[in-house]
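Risk register update: the risk of archive-format incompatibility is retired. Evidence:
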Amino acid sequence: MKLLSIIKERTLIFDIFMQTPQSEQIPGTLIPSLYETDFYAWTQEQAKLLKHREWSQIDLPNLIEEIESLGKQQRAELRNRLSILIGHLLKWEYQVSKRSRSGVNTICIQRMDILELLKENPSLKPYLQEALQTAYIKGMALASGETNLPRKTFPENCQYTLEEIFSDAFYPGEQATDEVME
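Archived output:
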């Protein structure tokens, strides 16, 4: 009997979870918008309204906010990838005994991903110089955390130029050897 009760309760919880959110108006409260209750459905609805040029139906304030947010996400992705790349360049330079193919691969992949991001978003190129110091601080934290070297081991400011950072031939300290690449 108790097992049957548990099954019914879990079925009820599952049914409630799987229901499409409904906006029930409660006296004295605002009706939550689709943007607040089901973001994916909101995006699909906005795309449909734009395609059909139903300008008066578009949720303009939230649409503006989301478009601005997309631009910020691209900048954040650039900074994050640059941080990882710089962190691995620092590890390469300061932890010579632990150099590996994995480190080389991470450096190569991050370079390719950043260059692809810049190709798809060329207006981010001027932001690179601004992002460099922030990315360096994060990269230094990554390198310090993964190598157990104190942060004071690393220079306070980035010693690499953007040209060096993106050069396939640049591995600070020493070039990647065939031994590491094999």
